[in-house]
Queue: 3 jobs
Job 1
Amino acid sequence: MAFDPMLQRQIMGRFATGVTVVTTRYGEQISGMTANAVMSLSLDPPLIVVSVDCKSNMHGHLTQGQCYAINVLRHDQEDLSRRFAQPGPKDFSDLKLAVAETGAPILADALAYVDCRVVEVAPAGDHDLFIGEPVAGETHDGQPLIFYSGQYAQLAPIAADS
């Protein structure tokens, strides 16, 4: 008997994740998408993965661009997550952007970013795993945006020992 994909979605929805915007550049075009299916795959050699739906526009853009930046969103950037989760072209015009090594856009106000060159694409069901070699990155102080059970959330402050 096949496993119910809706049950899989419900179960994995109980796994709290950070929220990122993955960006790429191909020629003069820039593109982005909200993603929480990202992971640090290996430290030796350093490898980072983003999972992308094969039918999405972003899949073609990553294939053409051969690079991506994973921008980790701050707790107050839910609006960016929602913007980049919508289908179709994305509006970057009001965003402060930077670039590092690959030319992929970096959201200057993100909590952290890692800039990667695509080194391999591995098929995985209806998605492909874009495996990237990190070539630049940076972190900033702040709290992350969290996604849990279909909703945005924030980390609770840690109580000091009395």
Note: DSSP finds three helices and twelve strands in the chain.
Job 2
Amino acid sequence: MTKPSSHGHTQSGSEITDEVVEKLAAEAETGYDVDTLIARRGKRGRPTLGASPASVESVRLDSELRQELLKRAESEGTTTSELIREALRQYLHAA
């Protein structure tokens, strides 16, 4: 008896065997219902930061400031983005 060949693994870790490939090919040949596919897929993108979509703002940092930012974010167990948002909130509320 021959072991079914493997074609790798899915993102969830399931093995992709010849049997899985044949099943997917048969499904593709019969055609897809677009509404079902859209409903089946998960939400994409980053989680929202509030009630409305967030904007992305670019800021230039010199290498020393960037290194300080990275060290601080690591020491506080947070991201550089969250650290910048918090610093900006504090600055704007103090003004």
Note: The two ends are 76 Å apart (CA to CA).
Job 3
Amino acid sequence: MDKKYLLFVMGVSGCGKSTIGKMLAESLHYPFFDGDDYHLEANVKKMAEGHPLTDEDRFGWLATLNQLAKKHSEKGAVITCSALKESYRALLARQLNATVRFVYLTGSFELIMQRLRQRKGHFMPPTLLKSQFETLEPPAGAIQVSIDENPQEIVAQILAGLQRD
């Protein structure tokens, strides 16, 4: 693939962003960045205590991810980020001189809750999943893939979507 992309793998907590993002980055020979690694400590603590983040809480985090994307715009990158609202996605993509695509991983509340309950060692408690679904504004124009498939098939569908660009 000759075209370079800044790919934001998005969706609610527990949809598989990190797993799919890593595999996608490997397939494209792009660097991978997990958006969770860029949260402020105060935000991680807030979520760990069961409190959803506000737009104000997220602003600095999203701006940091935007700067990260700018640094990698020439060679491409895969960045995971919940990117739940259109305003968040606009901030992530602001002033980027590369082809930005959002990859939206979708799944039912029940399936994702089951995954969250099995996940160990993550700061995001399953109790916040409802607030994530309530905040979610499904993106228009994203490459949308159901998480009902196995990870290899999900990545294959994303790559097929990029080929159609």
Note: The chain is about 45% helix and 15% strand.
